[in-house]
Specification:
Elements (H helix, E strand, L loop, with lengths): L15 H8 L3 H8 L7 H9 L12
C-alpha cells in the first residue's frame, strides 16, 4: 500500500457562524435561540436537530 490515504474524522461544523449558515439564519438569531431568548420556527428547529443542536441548550444554569 504505497499510496494509502489516511481518512480522519473531523467535526462537521466549526463555530456558531458555520451552524447558522447551515441553518440559513444569522449567528445572532441562532445564538439567541440556543440561549433560550427566542423560540425557533418549526423549519429552524428541524435544521437544528439535524445538526445535533436544540433550543435553549446554552441557557445559563442548565
Amino acid at each position: 500500500m504505497k499510496n494509502a490515504v489516511l481518512i480522519r474524522p473531523t467535526t462537521e461544523l466549526r463555530g456558531l457562524g458555520a451552524a447558522a449558515r447551515r441553518c440559513g439564519v444569522s449567528h445572532t438569531h441562532l445564538r439567541k435561540v440556543l440561549q433560550g431568548e427566542r423560540k425557533p420556527s418549526a423549519e429552524l428547529a428541524s435544521k437544528m436537530r439535524k445538526l445535533g443542536l436544540s433550543a435553549g441548550q446554552m441557557k445559563e444554569g442548565v
